[in-house]
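Bench notes, afternoon.
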Amino acid sequence: MSRSVTPLRAPAGDIEAVHWQGGPLDCASCCYGELRALPGEQGCEPGHACLQDVYARRIDRFFRWHPALSDEQLTHPYFEVRAIAVRRASVFRLPALLDDPDETVRLQLALRLPLTLLGKLANDPHREVRIRVAQRLDPAGLLALRCDPDYGVRELVARRLPLGVLATMAGDPDRAVRMRVAQRLEMPALLRLVDDAEPEVRRIVAERLPVALLSRLACDADWRVRWEVAQRADAAVLQALRDDEDPEVRRAVQERRATGPTLVETGAVHG
């Protein structure tokens, strides 16, 4: 049976109202059809606030007008309806959707599940879900994500992992993750990255090493690392860099020597 066409009150120029299964909207077959008779936000509005619409914004507006109906729609066949219903449904109803086939639904779950259940999504097949999990998990729960196959997840873990175990990520295969580790590690664990293969990582180490240890990077193969060393080095290291092969490094040394090196300890603290 074909659906009847429902008159729309959508603003001119807005996206066309289409049923999530295709074709026109049909208020007569909607389980909430009685809402059409109610005024404003007490009711619904095809093309603006509608559970049947394919457009997520209109579905969201429907649930904003009627949040109490969210629990009833957690098993709706359209994934957008389930995902939006999760935002306002009772948290006690959410565990039933842990195995939902659509990642959009599981993504919303990752934003609302109680922390005691959030770990159940730590191995979700979709990276965006695991990223949200890494943003919310308590520090102890993050340990399980240190070896996640996606570097974006591991980078988030490196931002939040307790300092006591952060050194276990110093050998991560991705440069961006090791850069995050270098930005947070305390001494003496920071020394593990002095010989890192990537100059971007070693440059961060040079920013944070205690001044007394900067000589370890004064002969680094990358000029950017040596330039960073020159920003804080003591007089002896500046002397060694005076004839550096790179003009930017020599210029940095000249500027420091002209003003006199001020030995202010700004490196990483000792753990």
